[in-house]
Amino acid sequence: MPLNRRDFVTRSAATAAGAALVGGLPVAAATPAAAATPATAGEAEGLKKAPLKQSFTVMGTTDLHGRVLNWDYFTDAEYDDKAHNDVGLAKISTLVNRIREEKGCHRTLLIDAGDIIQGTQLTYYYARVEPIAGKRPPRHPMAEAMNAIGYDAAALGNHEFNYGIPTVRAFEEQLDFPLLGANALFAKNERPAFQPYVIKELHLGHGRPLRVGILGLTNPGIAIWDKANVSGQMVFPGIVEMAKKYVPRMKAAGADIIVVSAHSGIDEPTTYGDQLPWPEDASGEMAETVPGIDAVLVGHTHKEVPQRLIVNKETGKTVVLSEPLCWAQRLSCFDFEVEFSRGQWHVTSLTSRVLNSNTVPEDPEIVELISAQHKKVVEYVNQVIGTCKAELSIAEARFKDAPIIDLIGRVQADTVKAALASTSYANLPVLAQAAPFNRTALIPAGTVKLRDAAGLYIYENTLEARILTGAQIKDYLEFSAKYFAQLAVGDPINLDTLTNQQNTPDYNFDSVYGVSYDIDLTRPVGSRIVNLSYEGKAVDPAAQFVLAVNNYRANGGGNFPHVASATKVWANSDEIRNTMIAWVKAKGVIDPADFGGVTWRLVRAGMPLF
Which pTM does this prediction carry? Predict the structure, then answer.
């Protein structure tokens, strides 16, 4: 089995400083004397014999999103991309074992920065099809793999809450290590809902062990993005504010070193729909303003940052940050050198690096561990749900009206129309929002399998219906159109720079099914939508429309105008992905002639770009 370091002592925050219960969960009690506890006579004698300078490594992953094996359940094939990256904890396990062999197990720790249980059909299956929160819960494959590899701690990610709090709790119960969330609080009393931190002991010599405190922080945006799952139950205050609260407590509880595992980016320029007083990406601000932190494992933004150095304004001390690429494509390593002097451990050197998981084979122990679950999910995603008359590709959906995106809109519009048929809103026109989530999505001509639909709609979003006016629909589209670069007539077209402008990701580029419009790229952001029409007539700014919209957008995700405050007339708890699968099963045949056709286009001074 993989090495899991059970041969050296660990100590949680609860047992390190006396057990205290908050909300039924162990948290650290402050014991100021612990930080300055002198060595015993035996320890002092040991210190004379042991080298004063020692080294250790903290390894970290983030945004695993359900990847255990190097497998793509949407294509039913081994994962690959243009850079030939690999994914999965089985690869990470091999890297971790090598570091442990090089350093010694007692000189390593392994942590994660969140977004663990959402992202693949493997984890969807054990949340919805055979749920771990059910009466006879199966083992969760991510828990199985992470326990076997020997993680020491993990922070909560925002996607942990996509399936509701009971699923998070069920996952937490299956872990052999703490799931940390210092800023995940019970709404009723604002006490910790999860263990805020843990203190681990590393025995580096014969003297006093080194105590490494690991603080877990998650994203305040959970309150918006998963409002339906957490409202009234949990609140998520700011990352910086809670770090300022807990770092001194960890020091008082005896931590020599502070490592923060933060599901938050370093210095992203925007906060997509937080609508909160706290920023979404605050790891950089935390490092700069909260004294006492040595290292930060960064998450959430799916970027690769081998090393980032930020000087703390108060102490002048350099804090080291690192973010490994998502999906277990990279492993961050924080390499510490420490020295014991004057009765304390001091950091003398700290650097970080990332290791590429495509340089090693999968750990056969991890592969074997989840092989039965993997096989079950492969069978599930390969169910035939219908046929399609023509191939539908998403390849050009970022800059052209693609039928595959219209399919999402049609399914959503049909679902909302049926739901409102017997209500006072039945006669209002129904429009639908959709975005290109997955650049590799493809529905083949001929047989359509469940995984084809799942690959088109990769998120766990549910469907809602909101009332917007014609003027508000136009504002909504203007906001979305900031995704495109501004082009003068005659400028060359570069598809690499045409989209993703103003740091707008693909999932925040919405088109609206049911209306027709042009996006004039010669115009500045905010005045690009022209010829907006419904059924051949110009849209009346005062007219009312029903917009079928996913819950992420309806709750404010992306910060699109009007929709979050608009009247909600219907909502559904089933994932849009499942709604699409049911729609295809009911139809039997997907015919692009039923929903395709160019309803929006990019233009320059009225002339089509393509």
Answer: 0.86
